[in-house]
Amino acid sequence: MGWAGDNGIRAICFDIDGTFYPKWQTNLYLLRSALRHPVFSMKYNSMRQALRSADGTDGGQAMDLESFRRREMETMGFKGSFEDYMECYQRFMLAPWERNMGFLKPFDHVKENLEKARAQGYLLAALSDFPLSDKLSILGLDGLFDYEMSTEDCGHLKPSRIPFLVMLSALGVEPSQALYVGDSYRKDVVGASSVGMRSLWIRKGARREGHPLVDLVLTTWESFATMVLD
Fold it and tell me: Which residue, 9, 30, 127, 210, shows the most beta carbons closer than 10 Å to its own?
């Protein structure tokens, strides 16, 4: 029995961007968006950082997606109506992302590890800070998850506790029964740990030294099964 079984884990939950596929692929999209409308893109990215800092690991109460978009608009200092903001968001952020999503390629061994975890009876969840759209399907991972959500749908970005709590409630498991896997210590490990989840940091060059909240560290997907499942 692997680490997950030894520690009473029932659900294994995953970040998507940078965890299932290389971060440079997201950065390429962001660059393309910036070139299309540099002023809006720069302000949008700064706004996202401001929201993360404002919420921290707390985040207040869950909100619906429209309320979140209105909060984005206010934080960004957008001059215009909500309809104007949504048009800019659709044209300069969402539409380019969806057009370029076809280039996404997963890391080696991602799918086989997810299939093995599912075959062993673990609940699987995917939690992304970006809209899901057809991302999991393009990565060849659709149909593997019991729960899929963008943090935007509950109104708060990681590391806010809110999306993690919403996900746990939907899965019907206690925090101590869930392992969260992500590539960002600040967003994924800190956020998951703040609600009592266990955490696995998977990233090239990741080290446990200086990162006291993380339970497991892996540098590639190749050793996921032997470390977590077997």
Answer: 127
Q: What is the pLDDT of residues 108-155, one digit of tens each?
A: 999 999 999 999 999 999 999 989 989 999 999 999 999 999 999 999
Measured CA to CA, the distance from residue 51 to residue 189 in angstroms comes to 18
pLDDT tens digits along 187-207: 999 999 999 999 999 998 888
β-bridge mates for residue 178, sequence order: 11
CA-atom Rg of the chain in angstroms: 18
Instruction: Give the chain as a DSSP string.
Output: --HHHHTT--EEEE--BTTTB-HHHHHHHHHHHHHHSHHHHHHHHHHHHHHHHHHTTT--S---HHHHHHHHHHHHT--S-HHHHHHHHIIIIIHHHHHHGGG--PPTTHHHHHHHHHHTT-EEEEEESS--TTHHHHTT-TT--SEEEEGGGGT--TT-HHHHHHHHHHHT--GGGEEEEES-IIIIIHHHHHTT-EEEEE-TT--STT-TT-SEEESSGGGHIIIII-
Task: Determine the pLDDT at residue 92.
Answer: 87
Tokens of 112: 């086989």
